[in-house]
Design brief:
The protein is an alpha/beta fold. The chain has 2 domains: about 160 residues, 3-Layer(aba) Sandwich (Rossmann fold), CATH 3.40.50; about 90 residues, ProC C-terminal domain-like fold. About 50% of the residues lie in helices and about 15% in strands. An 8-stranded mixed beta sheet has the order 3-2-1-4-5-6-7-8, sandwiched between helices. The longest helix is centred in the last third of the chain and has 22 residues. Bound molecules: 1,4-dihydronicotinamide adenine dinucleotide and (2S)-3,4-dihydro-2H-pyrrole-2-carboxylic acid.
Amino acid sequence: MDTQVAILGGGNLGTALAKGLARTEEASSKYDVTITRRNADLIRYLEDDGITVTTDNTAAVEEADLVILSVQPTQIEDLVNDIKPVLDPQQHILISTMAGVTDEDITELTGSGFPIFRVMPNTAAAINQAMTCVGKTPHKEAEEKVIELFESLGKTLLINTDLMEAATVLGACGIAFFLRYIRAASQGGIEVGFHAKEAQLIASQTALGAAALLLDSDNHPEHEIDKVTTPKGCTIAGLNEMEHNGLSSALIKGIKVSYEMIEKIR
Ligand SMILES: NC(=O)C1=CN([C@@H]2O[C@H](COP(=O)(O)OP(=O)(O)OC[C@H]3O[C@@H](n4cnc5c(N)ncnc54)[C@H](O)[C@@H]3O)[C@@H](O)[C@H]2O)C=CC1
Ligand SMILES: O=C(O)[C@@H]1CCC=N1
């Protein structure tokens, strides 16, 4: 029988997870997905992909093996109060995507005995290109199921839970950080002669190529950069100008401020 997945909170991330699970034959043949949202009509379109859409959290949980909690941190208390009567430690593996919410926070609301996993995916799950960090737990059998689910949505990395906040910033917020780079590169591309759509295509495919070079080889970025920077050429001139203006420093500082912010989310 298919594994039953309930995604509670069909917002930006929840819908990305649902779309990814419906998008490939491999995932859709393994997982039966139900997604909930208070205003379910806003995500009714997911039914076209074979996903069950409902406002009824308890009905979704009653059927589920894997329960993904994907509401905002401030909304978790109401959600757990809603589903608590049907939560069963023998049946349910709880998976939280919530930034800054610890497993202790969740246990306080659910009561003890549940395998609770903290995961940090990103919105590229919608196209099965997510990076998902999964926090280690002692529940090894359940862990395999959680990793299998997120492997069907992209790549996974098992990490110590004290790194979940760092994973949030680098992997989840990272989507926005890289997209802002692509937007800026496109704007530069327009200044030097391209139409907006052409500039975006060139910048996006170049970003994808740069990332793929690293994923394919495991090389350090600077090793690949050295291959592009012709002596006295235009690459090193542009790169050094970017660094004089604080490119690397701005990124590092932004990541640190983002990290410090997680403490304050809840
Ligand atoms: N957006 C992102 O890229 C990522 C978000 N996260 C985390 O995932 C969680 C969700 O984030 P987003 O999807 O961006 O937020 P969102 O605000 O877009 O989605 C939350 C959804 O949950 C629904 N909701 C709230 N209470 C509910 C309830 N009791 N029953 C059913 N639905 C309910 C809301 O109506 C909303 O549609 C957050 O905790 C966030 O920290 C983690 C990684 C990436
Ligand atoms: O910005 C946020 O707080 C959430 C967590 C990671 C991505 N979005």
